[in-house]
Fold this protein.
Amino acid sequence: MQLRLTKAVKLIAIICFAMFVIQQTADQFFGANLLRWFALVPSALMLDYRFWQVFTYAFLHGDVMHLFLNLMMLVFIGSEIEASWGTPRFLRFYFFCSISAGLFYLFLQLFMGGATLHTPMVGASGAIYGLLMAYGLLFGERVLLFMMLFPMKAKHFIWILVAVEFMSTVFSPRGGVAGAAHLGGMAAGFLYLWGWGRFLQIRSKPFGQGSSKKTVKKKRSADHLRLVKGAPNDPSDREDGPKTWH
């Protein structure tokens, strides 16, 4: 996979790195507790009306490894998606997945109740998992290294991730909610692309042209599942108690 750094990916990476340095410095040396203000804390959002947390939580990270893994995935897959879509569409998709994952986490915590309402969530993984879903649909035949060792097509890789996160959600006592937030980001990515594909279908259809149910069913073919047919420069048309980190 060719490594390149596109405009939006570079900006997001710089902000995440800068926020990590500011967060660690302010918390450790000045006792600022920035997580209380900028992480996604269900009780703070609902009782203190800190609605910006649904947006800002994705720029904070728990430790160096958490930051490194998220930024590594952002650079490797995000840059290629941005180069294919363009910066505006990439940013809309990225923050749609990020905010959706945050809202899903909020819903789960409100449903469960108890002390978990005060547990902050940080990390860009909801958006990253949305990008992984998009990458698997756009570049399904590309080969990725699962666990950095096993070569696997991207379209198979994403479904293994879904299975892993589902198992984590069901069986992990501490990481279950974070795993569910990952799944929320992936589901949001799929629904966004599905809706975009439907919009392109409707827009390309001549005004007033009738169609039977059979015609509609035929249109839901493999081309529609690619969800991005007609996108400019689309490479898929070629052959070739603690914080919740997520």
The first helix runs from residue 7 to 30. The radius of gyration is 19 Å. The mean pLDDT is 79. Residues 3 and 86 are 17 Å apart (CA to CA).
